[in-house]
Amino acid sequence: MLLLTRWFGVTSTESERDLAGEQARIDEIVKKVLLMQANAAAQQHRPLGRGTHVKGISARAQFEVLDVTAGRGPVLAARFAQGMLATPGVYPAIVRFGNSDS
Question: What pairs with residue 63 in β-bridges?
């Protein structure tokens, strides 16, 4: 397995990195990803999209944040109630469905 990871440029220390070959591997990955995207667009008779998830149709929605403190101890509740999940409520949202199509 170690040989395989090194082939992909994954190393366990900085001294094992192949800086000379790193950019060539990055360029090869970019070239192949762009080729996959172009082939997928051609097969689907559509223009080339951005990245790996082409922008689709969006819909208005509501995002409901439940009370994560209900029925939980204070330590667990504090772990859950972070960022946008800290305040229970119903919030407006715009959602877009994505898939793994290249």
Answer: 91
